[in-house]
């Protein structure tokens, strides 16, 4: 078991080694464009990606595209790649790979693709952050006991003297020769290199030309991927943190979509198994579920050795890692040792691992269970990506669990369900650019210093991004859970109007040649309401007014105190100088209809606006003439203390 488990542990370590950011970025571009051939060709230039994805060829199949995207986005990337040890190691690996492939073409029995892989990965142990590796360990990642060991030998013995490999397999000989030519300045003048060239047969001059070509191609690819050894472009810490944050969140989004594609528990666990291998190098896993007699037995949800079926771990054992995970509902780790429960030692031996981590979960039929992942990297239980993957697993199982527990038969999706699913996917995707925008606002705020006007504008942008995020979250929650009422704020209506005008001046009003006037009554009392609702209504009205004035015009916002139905009210008027509304449109103004404007207009803006105003216990009306349209919002001027309020900051005012 020792050699096998050691090999598996090294494969999990492989997922922690850094990749070249330029190669990862280009691979993501090919994945997004659907060019599988270009994607496969691109990852061949990065030793870590090549080894990881070579072991998982199924990731290139269409059904695993979201997982592959997650793998690329979550891959650690090297910093300062052009200069320093990383760039130097990469350029050497590419030169050896190009030359080894060229030499393999002159040597019978040497496979060119295997020569390339051995060349790219020959010095992986010399890369930064790879100090725990050795040439022998790198060789173990490609060693297959069921196949000829020539590739692993080429990696293991590439730096040995040429004389020692004189009668070895041709693949080892060409990789040895390529390594000597690239790394030894006087190689072409040495007796051993000339003898190795002559055995191909090649002369010193021809060998020199192949070396020059290999270095030229390596240099061209270094320019392509930003690894040419020139000065790295300046980048601040904040920008690097932002890039890492975006990559992590985008990886989460890709994994979320990957698990959403699973339609039953079998598919959920199949996706889980693929994700374990692709993201963490975990090749051995099992599920133990609570069975009759309050014992944990293997469940046929993940493929596992049949010998495990003979084991039954009492749930209340208290000593086994499995039972402790169930009892504490928290992850537990098995590392071996004299004090370990013998059943855990037996499970590890049967699985062929030296350690494992146990994660409690609930199966679709409602039973408690434990997921075992073999030979993970140290500290995996605290890794954000690991925790996110387990959360996605639990979420993917939950809908199935609810349906089965209720004895329901899960029907095929109906036409309206498909439409709903598309809407939910779109809503989910909206969250990613919102996060990017929010992070960029924070980054700009840090860079631009204490300029009060700039910080005020950035504050408005940040508030608007968060408002859109709350709207999106509200839509996704509304389908399955009642949305709790948001706390009311003591809102200054004048502040909301001023903030809206300032926010839209350069993006909506000025570009459309609309002059804006405001006439605000300074004596308005604060209103207890949800600020986002009022802001959304005012923006809808302003946007409609601008669209009505296609040649430009004037837009006026007015606030005042008034009385209506023997009640104090605050009026907000939005008046434009457009051509007015046709009678047929005015008659159905607040009904949800198909818009005639085209583009991104859904015909819902005014219907939504009236609904939002009514939620604020107000009224929305409209008066339209050929000289323009006047929209009037009336909100009850309730006095403080009549409803619970929360005191908050109003945007950046």
From TrEMBL:
Gene Ontology MF terms in the entry: ATP binding; phosphorelay sensor kinase activity
Catalytic reaction equation(s): ATP + protein L-histidine = ADP + protein N-phospho-L-histidine
Enzyme type, top EC level: transferase
Classification via SUPFAM superfamilies: ATPase domain of HSP90 chaperone/DNA topoisomerase II/histidine kinase (SSF55874), HD-domain/PDEase-like (SSF109604), Homodimeric domain of signal transducing histidine kinase (SSF47384)
Ranges for domain Histidine kinase: 425-639
The UniProt record lists the keyword Transferase: yes
Keywords on record: ATP-binding, Kinase, Nucleotide-binding, Phosphoprotein, Transferase, Two-component regulatory system
Keyword Transferase found: yes
Descriptive protein name: histidine kinase
EC number(s) per entry: 2.7.13.3
Pfam families: HATPase_c
């Amino acid at each position: 078991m020792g050699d096998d488990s050691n090999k598996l542990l090294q494969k999990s370590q492989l997922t922690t080694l850094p990749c070249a950011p330029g190669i990862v970025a280009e691979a993501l571009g090919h994945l997004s464009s659907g060019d599988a051939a270009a994607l496969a060709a691109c990852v061949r230039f990065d030793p870590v990606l090549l080894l990881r994805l070579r072991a998982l060829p199924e990731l290139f199949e269409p059904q695993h595209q979201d997982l592959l995207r997650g793998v690329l986005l979550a891959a650690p990337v090297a910093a300062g790649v052009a200069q320093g040890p990383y760039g130097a190691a990469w350029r050497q690996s590419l030169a050896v790979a190009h030359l080894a492939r060229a030499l393999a073409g002159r040597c019978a029995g040497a496979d060119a693709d295997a020569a390339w892989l051995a060349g790219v990965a020959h010095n992986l142990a010399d890369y930064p952050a790879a100090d725990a590796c050795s040439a022998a360990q790198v060789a173990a990642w490609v060693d297959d006991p069921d196949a000829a060991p020539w590739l692993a030998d080429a990696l293991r013995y590439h730096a040995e003297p040429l004389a020692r490999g004189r009668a070895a397999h041709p693949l080892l000989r060409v990789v040895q020769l390529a390594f000597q030519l690239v790394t030894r300045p006087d190689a072409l003048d040495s007796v051993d290199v000339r003898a190795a060239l002559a055995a191909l047969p090649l002369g010193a001059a021809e060998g020199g030309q192949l070396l020059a070509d290999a270095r030229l191609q390596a240099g061209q690819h270094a320019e392509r991927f930003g690894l040419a050894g020139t000065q790295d472009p300046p980048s601040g810490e904040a920008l690097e943190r932002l890039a890492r944050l975006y990559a992590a969140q985008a990886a989460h989004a890709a994994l979320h979509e990957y698990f959403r594609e699973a339609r039953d528990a079998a598919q959920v666990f199949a996706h889980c198994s693929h994700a374990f291998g692709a993201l963490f190098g975990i090749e051995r896993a099992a599920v133990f579920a609570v069975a009759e007699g309050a014992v944990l037995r293997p469940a046929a949800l993940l493929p596992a050795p049949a010998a495990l079926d003979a084991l039954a771990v009492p749930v209340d054992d208290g000593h086994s890692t499995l039972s402790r995970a169930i009892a504490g509902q928290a992850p537990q780790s098995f590392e071996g040792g004299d004090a370990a429960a013998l059943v855990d030692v037996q499970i590890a031996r049967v699985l062929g691992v030296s350690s494992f981590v146990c994660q409690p979960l609930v199966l679709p039929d409602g039973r408690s269970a434990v997921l075992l992942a073999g030979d993970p990297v140290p500290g995996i239980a605290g890794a954000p990506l690991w925790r996110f993957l387990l959360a996605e697993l639990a979420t993917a199982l939950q809908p199935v669990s609810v349906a089965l527990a209720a004895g329901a038969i899960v029907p095929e999706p109906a036409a309206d369900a498909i439409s709903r699913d598309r809407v939910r996917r779109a809503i989910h995707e909206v969250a990613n650019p919102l996060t990017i925008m929010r992070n960029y606002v924070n980054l700009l705020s840090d860079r631009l210093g204490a300029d009060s006007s700039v910080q005020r504008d950035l504050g408005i942008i940040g508030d608007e991004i968060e408002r859109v995020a709350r709207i999106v979250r509200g839509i996704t929650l509304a389908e399955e859970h009642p949305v709790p009422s948001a706390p009311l704020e003591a809102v200054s209506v004048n502040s909301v109007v001023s903030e809206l005008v300032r926010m839209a001046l350069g993006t909506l009003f000025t570009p459309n040649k609309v002059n804006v006037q405001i006439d605000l009554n300074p004596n308005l009392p604060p209103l207890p309401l949800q600020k986002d609702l009022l802001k959304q209504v005012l923006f809808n009205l302003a946007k409609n007014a601008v669209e009505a004035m296609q040649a430009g015009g004037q837009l006026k916002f007015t606030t005042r105190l008034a009385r209506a139905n023997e009640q104090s009210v605050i009026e907000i008027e939005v008046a434009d100088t457009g051509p007015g509304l046709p009678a047929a449109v005015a008659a159905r103004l607040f009904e949800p209809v198909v818009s005639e404007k085209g583009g991104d207009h859904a015909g819902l803006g005014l219907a939504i606006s009236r609904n939002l105003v009514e939620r604020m216990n107000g009224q929305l009306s409209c008066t339209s003439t050929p000289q323009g349209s006047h929209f009037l919002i009336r909100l009850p001027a309730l006095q403080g203390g009549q409803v619970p309020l929360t005191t908050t900051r109003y945007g950046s005012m």
